[in-house]
């Protein structure tokens, strides 16, 4: 187990290293000139050249990359070109808000998705199943900004039940979590439904019935634990989806998280911030997968970590 | 051993279960199809009644109907009654049925591998049924579960309690299933093919155990099986079923000695029996088509931080043999003996060491591309004809696909060739454009054989090719294989766990255990004068389709070397000693 953990951590570090390289090269190739962005439109060519020199933008790609990597390993993610602050500080200030949103979105999508999946599987091919599957289809296909705006219009503008945007109370959290979790709820309900249907046809479910157990007992103790296994593996991968969703949802609801930070940075080619946010989300995805793989053997005794 | 079949019969005894005119229909696209047609029988206390028949005969449907477990809404009881004592189970609501299941009627299933919940320990699965039927309090349950495991002769019962199903062997899992079934001391045990998925020695142990439990508890057993050997060994009375109808009901001796119905006679005639094999000509002078010398197959077991090899699984160790033209060599042994692995090694499907010559060509170290011409001479037919055909291609396309791959034919030539192959395996040409699901199991296996024949190979590796087929179909496919051999001088490497079938087809037999040869030689010598204790054990475990013969209790299995060894550890190979002629036996095991 500890050997496995060490190996997986080394693997994760290598993946992250690869991501720094790919992202760095991609941003290097972006045709916008950061020095000009910083200097502003009215700056002279000399000023721009000075800034470029200061930032080391004239150095060859590899020199720039290794300088960045060296700093990164010491915990230094560089300074924002446009906001007079360290990237690490900017991210640290906004990360808690994003994490809170993400966790509550995961909870929302699991509760919504698993419930819908279980009910649909148990009512397979009946009206309830068809209705729920149409709902899940809609939630998968609807763009998040549409859902977000729709929810805002109904619950904040029309009924005035929930705040229009911002951050602070539990009420602020509800609509962004639902918007972000809506897509995942659609996926999970479909996955859970088909997984439940598979498990319901397994021999051990017939054994459980032959034992004289009640339907409720069979569903909750025998079918659901087995059906949820493939879903758990998905949650790790899902964090990646969240990262792209977070940019949209945080903008719609004015949620002060790293998604908003990323959006501002992308618009203004603030490369150190873009790099920093990318690294944070890459780390989250890699960690999410690692945790999903570490949790799996605790739930399924057949999986051995080696 | 067998209780007198007359006990508990006669007009005065009250049956524990009385089935009258039971009729079950299954919904299909074209309306209801009757899968069980007016079946009636009585089950007396303490007796074993066998429901025997081939697939589709309605045996399992009967069991599920009695348990109230018919797959709804597809299947339903349309007529008849199932009387348990005075209570009619037909139409009983689910809540009251739950008090019957496990408490009064229990069932064990064919697949011990999949019949237990993989996420629950043995203890939880046992306690669950005890608590559901209030057999004891929550605190008493573990002790009671442990006692059940002990009663069922599981080794290390304390340890088994904490284990998950995947940590147990097939035989152990079936014991756990029986423990669950007997936990609430039911009056009736329904055993649906309880040993079909198990090795023959494990089968013998499980059958002994069912008999013992029956004797101790006086349980009535409804035994569902396709195996006439199991019927002869276990049953007091037999119902022979065919297409949902009872063909004949009689005491077991009568079924075997003087079957009245034509179908029963036909079924019994098709059963392969040890020691009733036809003579076979000697092929000692024919050309050697396969020469295998010191073949070993080892799989690496990895672990640690860098996934390095930490141990080796020795699947096959130092096996040598040759097959001459027109000859059949049979590989027998239990699961894990390496018999299928040897077949795969011959076709280059697993990495191997040693020397393999196919019709004179050394295939050691050959790439897949280089193997291609060799594969024209050696082809394989697998166990499951359903799974080894592509369901989205017509059988005609599949049969000639090898010819296309090897660029040996094209255009109308392919059609001609497909028609020819279909004729050879006894299928008609108008079937060529059909898809696999339109065929029966036996027909599918014929398609697989036709595909294997398409390249005109000299050798066919038949890996359990008839194991999944009903006996009557099995007999036909074996006849087909024999005809092909007589006509073309084909050689077979016949891999099977069924000693009676091997006796029918083999010229020579090789007995394998954990990757090594225990005994080899001419069929007569190995099967009828076995010298190695392992061969004897295998043979004595085979159920004999003759109720007048009682099988002796199986001697306990001797300890064997584990096939997984740490790196650097050397594998203890057995030495083969010649008994007479080419009959050789392993020594020191």
UniProtKB/TrEMBL annotation, chain A:
Tell me which residues make up the ABC transmembrane type-1 domain: 95-296
**Highest rank taxon of the organism:** Bacteria
Q: Which InterPro entries match?
A: BPD_transp_1_N, MetI-like, MetI-like_sf
State if NADP is listed as a keyword: no
Q: What is its main location?
A: membrane
Instruction: Give the UniProt keywords, A-Z.
Output: Cell membrane, Membrane, Transmembrane, Transmembrane helix, Transport
Q: Where in the cell is it found?
A: Cell membrane
Q: How does it sit in the membrane?
A: Multi-pass membrane protein
Task: Name the Gene3D superfamilies for this protein.
Answer: MetI-like (1.10.3720.10)
- Transmembrane stretches in the record are 12-30, 99-122, 134-155, 167-188, 227-253, 273-296
Q: Record's SUPFAM superfamilies?
A: MetI-like
What the entry lists under PANTHER family is as follows: DIPEPTIDE TRANSPORT SYSTEM PERMEASE PROTEIN DPPB-RELATED
- Give the family, as the similarity comment puts it: Belongs to the binding-protein-dependent transport system permease family.
> How is this protein named in the record?
Glutathione ABC transporter permease
Q: Which organism is it from?
A: Sinisalibacter lacisalsi
Automatic annotation (TrEMBL), chain B:
TM annotation in the entry: none
User: Superkingdom of the source?
Assistant: Bacteria
Locate the ABC transporter domain: which residues? 17-268, 290-539
- Enumerate the GO terms in the molecular function aspect: ATP binding
UniProt cross-references to SMART domains, sorted A to Z:
AAA
Give the record's membrane topology. Answer: Peripheral membrane protein
Keyword list (alphabetical) reads: ATP-binding, Cell membrane, Membrane, Nucleotide-binding, Transport
Q: PROSITE patterns of this UniProt entry?
A: ABC_TRANSPORTER_1 (PS00211), ABC_TRANSPORTER_2 (PS50893)
- Gene3D superfamilies according to UniProt: P-loop containing nucleotide triphosphate hydrolases (3.40.50.300)
Q: Which InterPro entries match?
A: AAA+_ATPase, ABC_Ni/Peptide_Import, ABC_transporter-like_ATP-bd, ABC_transporter-like_CS, Oligopep_ABC_C, P-loop_NTPase
Subcellular location(s) of the protein: Cell inner membrane
What protein family is recorded? Belongs to the ABC transporter superfamily.
Name under which the protein is recorded: ABC transporter ATP-binding protein
Species of origin reads Sinisalibacter lacisalsi
């Amino acid at each position: 187990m500890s050997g496995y953990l060490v190996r997986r951590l080394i693997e994760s570090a290598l993946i992250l290293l690869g991501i720094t390289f790919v992202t760095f090269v991609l941003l290097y190739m972006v045709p916008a000139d950061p020095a000009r962005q910083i200097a502003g439109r009215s700056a002279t060519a000399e000023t721009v050249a000075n800034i470029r020199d200061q930032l080391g933008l004239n150095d060859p790609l590899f020199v720039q990359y290794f300088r960045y990597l060296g700093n990164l390993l010491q915990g230094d993610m560089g300074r924002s070109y446009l906001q007079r602050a360290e990237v690490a500080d900017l991210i640290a200030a906004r990360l808690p808000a994003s994490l809170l949103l993400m966790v509550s979105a995961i909870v929302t999508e699991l509760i919504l998705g698993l419930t819908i999946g279980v009910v649909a599987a148990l009512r397979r091919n009946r009206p309830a199943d068809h209705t729920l599957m149409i709902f899940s289809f809609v939630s998968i296909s609807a763009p998040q900004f549409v859902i977000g705006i729709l929810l805002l219009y109904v619950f904040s503008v029309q009924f005035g039940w929930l705040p229009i945007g911002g951050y602070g109370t539990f009420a602020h959290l509800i609509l962004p979590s639902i918007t972000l979790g809506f897509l995942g709820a659609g996926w999970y309900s479909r996955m859970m439904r088909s997984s439940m249907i598979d498990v319901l046809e397994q021999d051990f479910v017939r054994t459980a019935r032959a034992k004289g157990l009640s339907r409720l007992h069979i569903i909750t103790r025998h079918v659901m634990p087995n059906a949820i296994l493939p879903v758990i593996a998905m949650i790790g991968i899902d964090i990646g989806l969240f990262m792209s969703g977070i940019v949209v949802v945080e903008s719609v609801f004015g949620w002060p998280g790293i998604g908003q930070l990323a959006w501002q940075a992308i618009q203004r080619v603030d490369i150190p911030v873009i790099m920093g946010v990318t690294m944070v989300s890459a780390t989250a995805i890699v960690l999410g997968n690692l945790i999903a793989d570490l949790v799996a053997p605790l739930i399924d005794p057949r999986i051995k970590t080696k | 051993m067998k209780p007198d079949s007359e006990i508990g019969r006669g007009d005065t005894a009250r049956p524990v279960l009385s089935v009258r005119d039971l009729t079950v229909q299954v919904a299909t696209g074209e309306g209801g199809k009757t899968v069980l047609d007016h079946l009636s029988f009585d089950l007396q206390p303490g007796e074993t009644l066998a429901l025997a028949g081939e697939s589709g005969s309605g045996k399992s449907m009967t069991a599920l109907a009695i348990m109230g477990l018919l797959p709804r809404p597809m299947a339903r009881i349309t007529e008849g009654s199932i009387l348990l004592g005075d209570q009619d189970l037909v139409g009983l609501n689910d809540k009251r049925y739950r008090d019957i299941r496990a408490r009064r009627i229990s069932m064990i299933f064919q697949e011990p591998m999949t019949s237990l919940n993989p996420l629950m320990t043995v203890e939880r699965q046992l306690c669950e049924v005890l608590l559901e039927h209030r057999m004891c309090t929550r605190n008493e349950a573990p002790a009671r579960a442990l006692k059940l495991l002990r009663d069922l002769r599981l080794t290390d019962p304390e340890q088994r309690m904490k284990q998950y199903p995947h940590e147990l062997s097939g035989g152990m899992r079936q014991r756990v299933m029986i423990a669950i079934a007997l936990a609430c001391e039911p009056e009736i045990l329904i055993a649906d093919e309880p040993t079909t998925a198990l090795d023959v020695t494990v089968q013998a142990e499980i059958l002994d155990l069912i008999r013992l439990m029956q004797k101790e508890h006086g349980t009535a057993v409804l035994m569902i099986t396709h195996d006439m050997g199991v019927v002869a060994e276990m049953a007091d009375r037999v119902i022979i079923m065919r297409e949902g109808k009872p063909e004949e009901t009689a005491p077991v001796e009568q079924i075997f000695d003087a079957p009245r119905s034509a179908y029963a006679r036909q079924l019994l005639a098709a059963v392969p029996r040890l020691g009733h094999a036809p003579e076979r000509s000697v092929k000692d002078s024919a050309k050697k088509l396969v020469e295998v010398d010191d073949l070993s197959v080892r799989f690496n077991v990895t672990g640690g931080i860098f996934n390095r090899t930490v141990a080796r699984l020795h699947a096959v160790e130092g096996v040598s043999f040759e097959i001459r033209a027109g000859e059949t060599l049979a590989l027998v042994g239990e699961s894990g003996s390496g018999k299928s692995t040897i077949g795969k090694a011959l076709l280059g499907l697993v990495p191997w060491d040693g020397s393999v010559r196919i019709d004179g060509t050394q295939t050691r170290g050959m790439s897949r591309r280089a193997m291609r011409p060799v594969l024209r001479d050696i082809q394989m037919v697998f166990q499951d004809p359903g799974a080894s055909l592509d369901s989205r291609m017509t059988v005609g396309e599949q049969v000639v696909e090898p010819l296309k791959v090897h660029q040996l034919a094209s255009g109308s030539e392919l059609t001609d060739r497909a028609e020819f192959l279909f004729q050879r395996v006894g299928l008609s040409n108008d079937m060529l454009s059909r898809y696999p699901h339109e065929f029966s199991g036996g027909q599918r296996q014929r398609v697989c054989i036709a595909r294997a024949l398409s390249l005109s190979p000299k050798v066919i590796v038949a890996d359990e090719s008839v194991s999944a087929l009903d006996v009557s179909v099995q007999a036909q496919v074996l006849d087909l294989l024999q005809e092909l051999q007589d006509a073309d001088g084909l050689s077979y490497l016949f891999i099977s766990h069924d000693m009676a079938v091997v006796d029918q087809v083999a010229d020579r037999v090789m007995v394998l255990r954990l990757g090594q040869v225990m005994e080899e030689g001419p069929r007569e010598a190995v099967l009828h004068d076995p010298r190695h204790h392992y061969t004897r054990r295998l043979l004595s475990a085979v159920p004999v389709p003759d109720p007048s013969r009682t099988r002796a209790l199986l001697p306990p299995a001797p300890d064997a070397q584990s096939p997984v060894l740490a790196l650097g550890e050397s594998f203890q190979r057995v030495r083969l000693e010649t008994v007479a002629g080419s009959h050789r036996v392993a020594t020191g095991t």
